[in-house]
Amino acid sequence: MSIHLQPLSGPLSVPIPTGVEEGEAISFRNIGVSYADARGEPVAAIAGLDLQIEPGTFVSIVGPSGCGKSTLLRVLAGLVTPVTGEALIGGQPAAGTARRLGFMFQRDTLLPWATVADNIRVGTDLAGLAPAAARARLAELVEFIRLQGFENHRPHQLSGGMRQRVSLGRLLAYEPDIYLMDEPFGALDSQTKSAMGRELLRIWAKFRRTVIFVTHDIEEAVTLSDRVVVMAARPGRIVLDQRIDLPRPRDARTLRKDPKYRDLVDVIWQHIETP
């Protein structure tokens, strides 16, 4: 039986350094990515893509399936090599800065045989923390994601939202400068998805890491982001880079009543629906 937990509330207190002042811009310059079709002919997945992301900002990428949203994250992470252009972090090739990146996927990648504590400990191990510091960080993070008492539970004993909280805890334990999030809440029901969005905003407000968030949900993108980048397919390219000039902190239920919010959602939809 899965266990469900109430959404997070209250202040954030995990003492992880923000380091926003030391953050560095992300640049995609003339990115082109191709793959071979069934006949071995090259097909352009992304072509001539340029994008600049300032440190500490929350940027969502939306667009139809197959437009290259997830591929773009993988280029930055060094998992996909572009045929043209380059991805840079602070002016340096992104491929040499992997320590700065943390990846979170739609399906959690928790170790099924490991406990909540052991899954989070993967992050402290990757961060190279000394044993005493790792134990302290683990205790802080378990409290932070409100999973006290569940440290010895395994993923199959948790709800989808709780598993994604563990994934967030592991990400925080690793202390990356940049969060790459590929539809992390896409498999969750709407209520849990909304709760996880609120929790992510709390984390971002506290630590102000750079977030690149891929989603198909336009309202989710507008609610969370400083900017929403719209991509078109065949080949993948940017057709809109929309600044979201809405006050923070944000509440999804309140925002839905704001005419400016509705206008932003409509503008983004129009660009997605345009051939």
UniProtKB/TrEMBL annotation:
InterPro entries: AAA+_ATPase, ABC_transporter-like_ATP-bd, ABC_transporter-like_CS, ABC_transporter_ATP-bind, P-loop_NTPase
ABC transporter domain segment(s): 28-258
Record flagged with keyword Transport: yes
Pfam families: ABC_tran
Parts of the chain that traverse the membrane: none
GO molecular function list: ATP binding; ATP hydrolysis activity
Keywords: ATP-binding, Nucleotide-binding, Transport
Similarity comment: family membership: Belongs to the ABC transporter superfamily.
Protein name in UniProt: ABC transporter ATP-binding protein
Native species: Paenirhodobacter populi
